[in-house]
Amino acid sequence: MLLIARRLLLGTALALSLPLAAQAQSPIVIKFSHVVSPDTPKGKGAQRFKELLEERSKGRVKVEVYPNSQLYKDKEELEALQLGSVQMLAPSLAKFGPLGVKEFEVFDLPFLFKDDAAFRNTTATLGLELFKKLDAKGITGLSYWDNGFHVMTANKPLHNLADFKGLKMRIQSSKVLDAQMRALGAIPQVMAFSELYQALQSGVVDGTEGTPSNIYTQKVFEVQKHITLSNHGHLAYAVVINKKFYEGLPADIRVVFDSSMRDATLYANAIAATENAMSLDKIKASGKSTVYTPTDAELLEWKKALMPVHKDMESRLGKATIDAAYKSAGFVAPK
Question: Has domain 26-326 been given CATH number 3.20.20.80?
Answer without folding.
Answer: no
